[in-house]
Amino acid sequence: MDQEKAGQSRRPRARRRGQGELEVQVLSALRQAPGPVDTAWVRERLGGDLAYTTVITILTRLLAKGAVVREKAGRSFVWSPTADEAGLAALRMRRVLDGESDRQAVLASFVTSLPPGDERLLRELLERAEEPGE
Fold first, then answer.
1. Does 8 fall in a domain?
2. Which of 30, 87, 112, 117 has its CB surrounded by the most CB atoms within 10 Å?
3. Greatest Cα-to-Cα distance within the chain, rounded to the nearest angstrom
4. pTM for this one?
5. Exposed, middle or buried: residue 19 (CB in 10 Å: 0-12, 13-18, 19+)?
C-alpha cells in the first residue's frame, strides 16, 4: 500500500515557467488585443489554466515596471501595453542598473563582455541617439 501511495504522489509536475516568461506572454496577449482588455480576457488568451489572481499579480507587476497601463472600467480595470518584449527586457536591465551603486563599473563590465557584433551595434545606436533632430 505504501508503494501505491508513493506511485500516486509521483504525478508529473507542470513545467515551471522561467523568470519573466509569464510577463512576456501577458504582454504578447495585450499587444494582440483589439484595445484595452480586462483580466479575464488576458487569462483566457493564456489558456485559462492560471489562477485569476496570478494574472492580476503579473499585470500589477507590469504596471509597476511601466510596461502596461490600466484604466477603471466599471468595478474593475482594463489593461493596455506600453512596452513590447524588447521594451520589457530594457525595463529589466534598467532596474538592475538602478539597483547598483557603481553604475560606471556595471556599464563598463557589460560593454566589455559583449561580443564584437553587439558592441558595434550598441555604438551605432548610441551615435544615432546623439544625432541632433532625432
1. no
2. 30
3. 77
4. 0.63
5. exposed
